[in-house]
Amino acid sequence: MKQSLYECTSYMEDVKANIARIDLAPLDGKRVYITGGTGMIGSYITDMLLFSDYDITVYVLGRSALKMMKRFPLQKTTKNLVLVEHDINTPIDLADPSWAGAKVDYMIHAASNTHPRAYAEDPIGTITANILGAYNLLEFFEKVNGGRFVFLSSVEIYGENRGDTESFDESYLGYIDCNTLRAGYPESKRAGEALCQAYIAQKNLDIIIPRLSRSYGPTLLKTDTKALSQFIHRAVDREDIVLKSAGTQEYSYGYVGDQAVAILNLMLHAKTGEAVNVASEGSDVTLRRLAEYLAEVAGTKVVFEMPDETEAKGYSTATRALLDLTKLHDMGYRSAYDMRTGLSKTVEILRELAYGEA
C-alpha cells in the first residue's frame, strides 16, 4: 500500500495532464488560499498549482493540522505550500501574528459537507460552512484587499426538476422544500450565493460562482457516502456494486480533473458575479448505469440493498438534475473525461494507491 497519492504514477500523470490543459502563467508569483483543501476538489486544485511550472504559493486552510499533513506530506519539502489550521466558522483575527501581513490574490472556498451521511449527522455544520464560513472568509477577504474570491456552489441549488425543462441553465429556479433536514445543503448554498452578491454590491468585491455537478475522482475521501463514491470503493476492491434504489435517478457528473481545470479557468477569466455550471461532457447518466459501468470495471455484478435510516435522511429527492453547459462552452472550455474514462482513471489510481497495481 502506498502512503500518498504522490507515490502513484497514474495520479501524478493525471495531474500533470490537466495542468497542461490550462495556462497558469497569470498565477505566477501569486498567493492562492483554499478552504476545504483536503477535500476531493480542493486537494486536486492544490496539487495542480503546486506541480505547475510557476511560482504559486498555496495556503490550505483546514480544521485539522494532522489531516492536512497526512494529505500533503510534500509540505516538508516545498516553500510553496503553507498549511493553516483554522475553522472557517470562526472569524479570522488579523491581530493574530499568524495572520499578520496576509496577502490574498485568490481565495477558493471549497469547504463544505458534500455527502448524505454528513448532511444527516451534521446538519448544522452543513449550513454554517456555506453561510457563516463564507461570511467569515468574505470579511477577511475584504480587510486584506483580496483579489478574486471563488465560491464553489452546487447543482443542488436548482432543486427538483418539475418537468418544465430538459436541463438546468444558470437562470433556472427549481423547487426545494425548505422545511426539511435535507434542505440544509441546497438552501445554504443558495444563501451563500446571495451573500456573495451582497458583498459584490456593497463592498465591491470580485467574486465568481462555479456551480458544480456531482463530482468524483481519486481524491474522494473514504468517509464520502455518496452512492457513486461507494460504488467506486467497491470497484477498487473488486466487490459487487451495491445499489440502494432502483437507480433511475439521472444526474450530471464531473471528473475531479475536469472540475479543477474548469474552476481555475473561471477563476482567471469569468466576469465578476457570474454563476457558471460545471460538469464533464458525456456524463449525464442514471445511477443504475453508473453501477453497471463500475461492475464492468470490477468484473463483478450489481446487487440491490435498502439504505439505512440515517443514509436515507441525507438522500436528495431530486430524480433528474442535468446541467446545461452552454455558458461554460461559450467561454471556450471543453472537458477531457467522459463517464467511462473518468471512472476507469479513478479506479486505476485508487488501485495503485491501495494495492500497488500500476
Task: Output the keywords.
358 residues; alpha/beta; eight-stranded parallel β-sheet; 13 helices; 14 strands; 39% helix; globular
Q: Given the helix and strand composition, which structural class is it?
A: alpha/beta
Question: Judging by the overall fold, what is the CATH architecture?
Answer: 3-Layer(aba) Sandwich
Helical segment count: 13
Summarize the main sheet: 8 strands, parallel
| Number of beta strands | 14
Inertia-based shape: globular
CATH class: Alpha Beta
CATH topology: Rossmann fold
Average pLDDT figure: 92
Low-confidence stretches: none
Order of helices and strands: HEHEHEEHHHEEHEEHEEHEEHEHEHH
Rg (C-alpha, Å): 19 Å
User: How far apart, in Å, are the first and last alpha carbons?
Assistant: 12 Å
CATH superfamily: NAD(P)-binding Rossmann-like Domain
Q: Strand-residue fraction?
A: 15-25%
The figure for the number of domains is 1
Helical percent range? 25-40%
Task: Kindly describe this structure.
This protein is an alpha/beta fold. The protein has a single domain (5-219, 254-283, 320-339), classed as Rossmann fold. It is 39% helix and 16% strand. It has helices at residues 9-19, 40-50, 65-71, 116-121, 123-130, 132-143, 184-203, 227-236, 256-269, 287-298, 309-314, 326-330, 339-355; strands at 31-35, 57-62, 81-85, 106-109, 148-151, 153-154, 207-212, 214-216, 241-243, 250-255, 275-278, 284-286, 302-304, 320-321. Strands 1, 2, 3, 4, 5, 6, 7 and 11 form an eight-stranded parallel β-sheet that branches. α1 packs across α2 and α2 crosses α9 (256-269). The longest helix has 20 residues, at 184-203.
